[in-house]
Design goal:
The protein has about 220 residues and is an alpha/beta fold. The chain contains 7 helices and 12 strands.
Length: about 220
């Protein structure tokens, strides 16, 4: 079960944006935390943040009933308050559609991030369910794919993602924050946002941009 503290942290992180989170992570000496740029939001107006529920699977030939039993079983295991992060090891088919998205939303998941495709995009947009994926396609998983592992480390691009690590996504892209420093990174991002507001006010008041940077240490 998702703790109230993790829910608050997820909400705080969602109120930040990936650019400022990136900057504080870079300043903290962290590396390899930005997911590939081809993972894009279905609705760029939505933001997504929360701890990862990791899934990895493989392409395999299986019958329709086995496919759907395995998939619905996976949806049943998805924990509320998390972001389902899927490494399907397949770039052709869709791993999220209307019924799956509606199920996860009703179960209290914060959203889904896939290194692969989705479908039923019009329906998912109407749901207002945050979804990041590489593409849309009518091809689904039936007879073609099955999840093999959940809750284990997965890799997307050059980024390793553990169950419980935090993801932060907006229209610019997606970032992964190690669980052990998610609270501190969020706090630093909030502080940076405050400094950016001071810089913005100074610029609007006619302060030279370099002077504003020197004054507040942020630009």
């Amino acid at each position: 079960m998702m703790s109230a503290g993790n829910t608050v942290l997820s909400d705080r992180l969602a109120a930040c944006y990936t650019g400022v989170v990136h900057d504080v992570m870079r300043a903290a000496g962290l590396r390899d935390f930005v997911l590939p740029s081809n993972i894009r939001p279905l609705d760029p107006n939505l933001r997504l943040a929360g701890p990862a529920f990791t899934v990895e699977g493989r392409t395999q030939e299986i019958d329709e009933d086995t496919t759907l039993r395995a998939w619905t079983g996976l949806l049943s295991k998805a924990p509320a308050g998390h972001v389902m992060v899927i490494q399907p090891c397949n770039r052709e088919i869709a791993f999220m559609g209307e019924l799956s998205a509606e199920t996860l939303k009703l179960r209290g998941l914060r959203g889904v991030l896939i290194d692969g495709g989705c479908r039923d995009s019009d329906f998912i947009l109407k749901l207002g369910f945050p979804l990041w994926a590489t593409h849309c396609t009518p091809l689904d998983i039936v007879g073609r794919w099955r999840a093999e592992r959940t809750g284990d480390r997965v890799r997307i691009g050059n980024v390793a993602i553990r169950h419980g690590d935090y993801v932060c996504c907006d229209r610019d892209g997606a970032i992964v924050i190690p669980a052990e420093c998610a609270e501190e990174i969020t706090r630093l991002a909030e502080e940076a946002l405050g400094k950016e507001s001071l810089v913005r006010k100074a610029i609007l008041a006619g302060v030279d941009p370099q002077e504003a940077y020197i004054r507040y240490g942020k630009f």
